[in-house]
Design a protein that fits this description.
This protein is α/β, with parallel strands linked by helices and about 230 residues long.
């Protein structure tokens, strides 16, 4: 793939582009067979592998780890050539059990990157210092190689980063035209603290009414401009 790898920490290199199994797959779950495997997702992952992808992103919330694991096994691509990212959302009070559950479904012994999916993962009095220490323990145990977060703002980092023994390697955030300026602040913060920004939704269409800040007036102006240019005499 024409994207340079990014060094997260030590010998952990993350490919410059990943194949996501959330988004449409999560919002529109595919039919599963009797073994709980969605063959459409399996086929999509195998096609991505054939196209050169080696990094794959899943999550507790996506509920598709088994299908991803089957695809990777059927592909025959060696585990050492793959980079697997997953995330935790509903079970942050016991991340070790959740990681082991995901590893069993993915048919592997470790994750390359493990993220707290959102600050909303905190509940029942759990604080970020305690939660982060439990993720650090996963690195110590060899269950994950690097740890990070997703959808975090500066205020969330400030709650635990001073106490972190292992620095967050990544902050995975949404980034597309309608919200790019809004994200500049957290991008600068992460740059200042040596935290890699990994983005999702970057291919969100420019014209998409109702999409997180998009408005009919903006969309109509873009459409009008496009139509005007297309009608310009040659």
């Amino acid at each position: 793939m024409p994207f340079a790898p990014i060094r997260l920490t030590g010998d952990v290199l993350m490919p410059g582009i990943s194949f996501g199994t959330g988004s449409d797959w999560r919002k529109n779950p595919r039919t599963e067979d009797d073994d709980g495997v969605a063959r459409e997702l399996v086929d999509a992952v195998k096609e991505a592998l054939a196209a050169g992808f080696r990094a794959f992103d899943t999550a507790e919330a996506y509920k598709n780890e088994k299908s991803l694991g089957v695809a990777l096994q059927e592909s025959g691509v060696p585990r050492e050539e793959l980079f697997l990212t997953s995330k935790i959302l509903r079970t942050l009070d016991d991340p070790a059990s959740e990681v082991r559950r995901q590893l069993a479904l993915l048919q592997t012994t470790y994750l390359d990157l493990f993220l707290i999916h959102s600050p909303k993962a905190l509940k029942d009095g759990l604080d970020l210092v305690t939660a982060w220490k439990s993720l650090e323990a996963l690195v110590d145990e060899g269950l994950v190689r690097a740890i990070g977060v997703s959808n975090f703002e500066e205020e969330h980092f400030e709650q635990f980063i001073a106490e972190a023994r292992i620095k967050p390697a990544v902050n995975q955030i949404s980034m597309y035209p309608y919200i790019s300026t809004k994200q500049f602040k957290i991008v600068r913060y992460c740059q200042e603290h040596g935290i890699i920004i990994q983005t999702y939704e970057v291919s969100t269409p420019l014209i998409r009414e109702g999409e997180k800040g998009a408005s009919a007036s903006i969309s109509n102006r873009v459409l009008l401009l496009t139509q005007t240019k297309s009608r310009r005499p040659s």
